[in-house]
Amino acid sequence: MGNILNFFVLEIFLVLVLTPNSCAASPNIIKSVPGFPGILPFHLETGYVGVGENEEVQLFYYFIKSERNPEKDPLMLWLTGGPGCSALSGLVLEIGPLIFNTSACDWHSKSPTYQLNPFSWTKIASIIFLDSPVGTGFSYAKNPGGYYTDDITSSRRVYQFLSKWLVDHGGFISNPLYISGDSYCGRTVPIIVQEISNGNKVGIQPVMNLQGYILGNPSTQHEEEETKSKYDYAHRVSLLSDELYESTKVSCNRSCADKEVDDVKCAHNLQAVSYNLDRVFAAHVLKPKCISNQTWCQESIYQLLYYWANNIQVQAALHIQKGTKPYWIRCNSTLAYTHNVGSSFSYHQNFTQKPIRALIYSGDQDMVVSYVTTLGWIKMLNVSIAEDWRPWFVNGQVAGCMSRYTTRFSNGNYHLTYATVKLFCERRKMPSSSRIAGEVTCFYLLHTANLQIPETVIACRLKRKADVQRRSIAI
């Protein structure tokens, strides 16, 4: 599911010069944005927060209040993977309240339009969409040295960001806090959670009401382990024959990710594996891989985001600091970034001894970070199963393209829910998993916030209970 799962949209702020003792620059309330007709029907705020010893790093964020009860609803921090992918991608393409109106889009005008997303996670939670690490999206550094970062440093900067943001937004300090992200954030989100937990333990202010974390198709293990699981998954979904799969396991001795393979048989098998998989759209194996500029291609949807974010009027509306970003990039592959956390598994293992709730979900058609990988390391946590595999439902559907399965682990005050998400099979103009992944999260947040979930549940839409008949699931 990788890039498919996950979700983002709008906002940005005119950076004010910060002194070392300041908390955060004054935020900007955005009433309207180019591409959406009229006044936005939700609270949108953008801004920069300076982090680092001398606030040399300016992290840009979009903040959207819950459309239900922002005073009590959970507060969520969302990070997009990469590293280097902008939170705007998740806001507009995945979980935010605005999505591109592709049916009314003039693909040649470079002026995309928006419509409201009925499955936005902001229906039940306030969300901070953060451009992190530095160099991502509209975030920038005041000097060249500030751009150098790594897994540990960037995670600590996020913790510093949250501390300053909460001081500046004191009304949200007591709200249940969840740290969330997808893909590569599987390595950094656990570090952030650990930093918050450590800070709370020693009384660093503000003490945050940390409740848990949410990860979609999270990259967690070492690259070699995830590559092995990729081949396991490809075999399970009939992309690799039994003969080739078994021969590769034997000849390569399961070291399928070894880039310096001397054995002739192993090298031959890996070449055959690549031949079978290279033309598969790894993020959603049922979808065709884009080979041309067709409007249903995910890459074409990304192009709309480039048009919008690089528009001068849009940047003015979002209060982007002039001169800090010559060109907005959805995923910046040129970051001065060091990958110094090979695996985040030890963090998850440590959390099993803490009062923390976790939701991990996998798209069942994602080969980038497959459910095989994720379920494998979850089992290695050695926590007891409180509720074994069972289906869960959307509109009463269990089979086909709209079914979900969940496993829940429990050890004292630690709770982990694992859910698979069966992706839609049809071509869609927006990420195919947005609705059902959103409902996974909806149920999870409603439950962990100690709210009553009736048998007939409204889920994430703001409708009367009688409008939607759904069977709820205790997560």
Condensed summary:
This protein is α/β, with parallel strands linked by helices and about 475 residues long. The chain is built from eleven helices and 16 strands.
Report on the structure:
With 475 residues, the chain is an alpha/beta fold. It folds into 2 domains: 28-222 and 338-467, Alpha/Beta hydrolase fold, catalytic domain (Rossmann fold, 3-Layer(aba) Sandwich); 223-277, no CATH class. Helix content is 28%, strand content 19%. It is built from 11 helices and 16 strands. Strands 1, 2, 3, 4, 7, 8, 10, 11, 13, 14, 15 and 16 form a 12-stranded mixed beta sheet that branches. Strands 5-6 form a two-stranded antiparallel ribbon. Strand 15 (403-411) and strand 16 (414-421) form a beta hairpin. The longest helix is centred in the middle third of the chain and has 18 residues, at 151-168. The radius of gyration is 22 Å and the shape is globular. The two termini are 21 Å apart.
List strands and helices in order, with pairings:
Layout: E1 28-30, E2 44-51, E3 57-64, E4 75-79, H1 87-95, E5 98-100, E6 114-116, E7 126-130, E8 140-141, E9 149-150, H2 151-168, E10 177-182, H3 185-201, E11 210-216, H4 223-236, H5 242-251, H6 264-277, H7 298-309, H8 312-317, E12 337-338, H9 345-351, E13 357-363, H10 371-379, E14 384-393, E15 403-411, E16 414-421, H11 434-448
Parallel strand pairs: 4-7, 4-10, 9-12, 10-11, 11-13, 13-16
Antiparallel strand pairs: 1-2, 2-3, 3-7, 3-8, 5-6, 14-15, 15-16
